[in-house]
């Protein structure tokens, strides 16, 4: 297949010429979000799609030193073996991927398929987690060598996990490393095993889920030791995106929000996963912190997530806002957001791969708080207002070329 740039691709200036190919390693590579991102990237290369939804292809980031779409090479881990082609066909049937797009890129999917490896499955990987990490690191390093990659970014797009139970070794890297050798310890949840492996392999890491991932002191120490960046958590694609845009409106106009109730209806794999109260706890916790941070006070904000299987990847969120104006007059606002979850998430995954690779190249180590724009529960910052996050992102990303030292 002839590879071309998409029409909207910004041409890099000589001072920020793209580096050698960059790897995007997806944990959960056969899932809906990953398959949509893979198909979308191939479509961009084939000139079958514009980069609508990709923030890195807008004027806001015109001076950011980013790898081009043609310089991204995709691989990944997953615990299921559904062929990418079959998964993409199911996403065509559910209205996530347009049929002509899949027809145009179908021949390129086997090339990506050859880069996928078996991930960490707690049901079958019963040995020490240290052995699992060694295997995952080996897969990533082999991928890097085989494709001659300048660097690799690992992005977690697997299913949401329950919150991890605290263990003392989560605060102590040496103690954590020792516990990983114990086959009975199970010191880390799967998302944190993936983060540990990413750091050990010298890769940047992004958690697009609300799972624990790199959010423990010992893993931040490992990132510092390995001189790699990380970002997260929980991609902001729908209801929370809307809240972070609208909540500042009330505070800037001195309107008092009395309550902000929300209901989320979704199906597919996410709906089934979040039907489990333990898994839903991580998601609800990630979403719950936004409104108090933006409104400056606690507010009554009941939030429900309901599994409606026939919706598939189509998600509907309904919000009811009760607020008080001048002279104590009560008013309300009702909002409905209907979106296709993977279609909203996939371009952000591609954006985060490009931005994290650029941060790594510029020598950024540890949490990338400037990427909070993309997340419900951003690491390293308490800023949630979308417009302010966008300004921080643009200022930082457009200045990365001046920081590049490698």
Could you please describe the fold and organization of this structure?
With 406 residues, the protein is α/β, with parallel strands linked by helices. The protein folds into two domains: 14-235 and 343-402, NAD(P)-binding Rossmann-like Domain (Rossmann fold); 239-339, 2-Layer Sandwich (Dihydrodipicolinate Reductase, domain 2), CATH 3.30.360.10. The chain is 39% helix and 17% strand. It contains 14 helices and eleven strands. It has helices spanning 32-46, 84-93, 99-105, 109-113, 129-147, 173-180, 190-200, 217-226, 239-252, 268-274, 277-288, 290-295, 341-361, 386-398, and strands spanning 22-27, 72-78, 116-118, 151-156, 204-207, 229-232, 256-266, 303-307, 314-324, 330-340, 366-367. The strands form two sheets. It has a seven-stranded parallel β-sheet with strand order 3-2-1-4-5-6-11, sandwiched between helices. A four-stranded mixed β-sheet has the order 8-7-9-10. Strand 9 and strand 10 form a beta hairpin. The model is unreliable at 1-16 (pLDDT under 50).
Number of strands: 11
- State Rg: 21 Å
Question: What separation lies between the terminal Cα atoms?
Answer: 32 Å
Shape: globular
Low-confidence segments, ≥5 residues, pLDDT <50? 1-16
Under the CATH scheme, the architecture of the largest domain is 3-Layer(aba) Sandwich
Keywords:
alpha/beta, 14 helices, single chain, 17% strand, seven-stranded parallel sheet, globular, Rossmann fold, four-stranded mixed sheet, 406 residues, Dihydrodipicolinate Reductase, domain 2
């Amino acid at each position: 297949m002839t590879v071309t740039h998409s029409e909207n691709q910004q041409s890099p200036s000589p001072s920020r010429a793209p580096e050698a190919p960059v790897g995007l390693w997806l944990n959960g590579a056969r899932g809906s979000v990953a398959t949509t991102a893979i198909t979308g990237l191939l479509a961009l290369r084939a000139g079958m799609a514009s980069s609508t939804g990709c923030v890195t292809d807008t004027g806001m980031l015109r001076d950011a030193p980013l790898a081009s779409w043609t310089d991204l090479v995709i691989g990944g881990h997953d615990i299921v073996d559904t062929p990418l082609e079959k998964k993409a066909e199911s996403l065509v049937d559910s209205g996530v991927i347009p049929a002509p797009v899949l027809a145009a890129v179908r021949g390129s999917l086997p090339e990506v398929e050859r880069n996928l490896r078996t991930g960490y499955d707690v049901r079958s990987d019963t040995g020490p987690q240290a052995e699992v990490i060694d295997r995952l690191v080996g897969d990533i390093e082999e991928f890097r060598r085989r494709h001659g990659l300048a660097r690799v970014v690992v992005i977690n797009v697997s299913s949401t996990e329950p919150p991890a139970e605290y263990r003392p070794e989560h605060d102590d890297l040496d103690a954590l490393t020792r516990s990983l050798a114990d086959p009975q310890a199970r010191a880390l949840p799967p998302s944190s095993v993936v983060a540990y492996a990413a750091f050990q392999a010298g890769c940047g890491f992004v958690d697009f889920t609300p799972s624990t991932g790199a959010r423990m002191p010992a893993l931040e120490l490992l990132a510092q030791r390995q001189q790699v960046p990380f970002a997260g958590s929980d991609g902001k694609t729908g209801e929370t995106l809307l809240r972070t845009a609208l909540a500042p409106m009330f505070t800037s106009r001195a309107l008092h929000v009395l309550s902000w109730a929300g209901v989320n209806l979704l199906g597919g794999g996410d709906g089934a996963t979040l039907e489990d109260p333990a898994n839903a706890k991580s998601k609800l916790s990630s979403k719950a912190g936004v409104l108090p941070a933006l409104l400056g006070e606690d507010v009554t904000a009941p939030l429900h997530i309901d599994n409606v299987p026939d919706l598939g990847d189509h998600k509907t969120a309904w919000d009811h806002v009760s607020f008080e104006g001048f002279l104590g007059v009560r008013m309300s606002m009702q909002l409905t957001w209907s979106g296709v979850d993977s279609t909203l998430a996939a371009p952000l995954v591609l954006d985060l791969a490009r931005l994290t690779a650029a941060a790594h190249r510029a020598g950024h180590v540890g949490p990338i708080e400037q990427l909070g724009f993309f997340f419900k529960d951003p690491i390293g910052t308490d800023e949630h207002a979308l417009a302010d996050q966008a300004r921080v992102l643009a200022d930082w990303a457009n200045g990365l070329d001046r920081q590049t030292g490698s």
